[in-house]
Structures are given as structure tokens and as C-alpha cells.
Design a protein that fits this description.
Blueprint (H helix, E strand, L loop, with lengths): L1 H24 L3 H26 L5 H21 L15
Helix pairs in contact: 1-2, 2-3
Amino acid sequence: MIYVWIVAGAMLSVAAVLTMLRVLLGPSTLDRLVALDTLIAVAMCAIGAYAAYSLDTTVTYSLTALALITFIGSVSVARFRVPDIADPSERGLRR
């Protein structure tokens, strides 16, 4: 059974590294926002896997807190973000 936990940890680690690359290399703010949401989802999966491995349910409160904070943060950023414009001269043409 320990091999299952090792494989799960390795897969979560690879997912976190690839998602972090998307956060760093994302061309737009929405790409970075989706990548941050994915990174937090990977962290929540890691916390859930740790809770299943250790049979400790006290860490599940952090899952609820992360889910609520992530949702509120994503909605507020999506609501109030400024659109990305490649050419600075086009900023004055926004109506």
C-alpha cells in the first residue's frame, strides 16, 4: 500500500511543478488565475491524500478554508481584472 502513496505523492508533485510553470510563463492574467486555481486544487488533493494516509481528520478544516478563499479570490479577480492589451497605444481606444 505504501507504493500507492508514493505514486500519488509523485504525481501530485509533478502536477504542482507543471502548474507552477504555467503560473510563471502564462501570457495573460487569466492564464495565471486558472493556474493558481489549479495549484490550490493540487494542494487540496495533497492535503486530502495526507489525511487519508495518516487517518487524521483535523487537517480537513484547511480544505474547507482553502476552497472558500480560493472561490472568493477567483471571483473577485475575474470581476475586477483589467483586460490585457498587447499594444500600449491601444489603451486610449478602450470605451
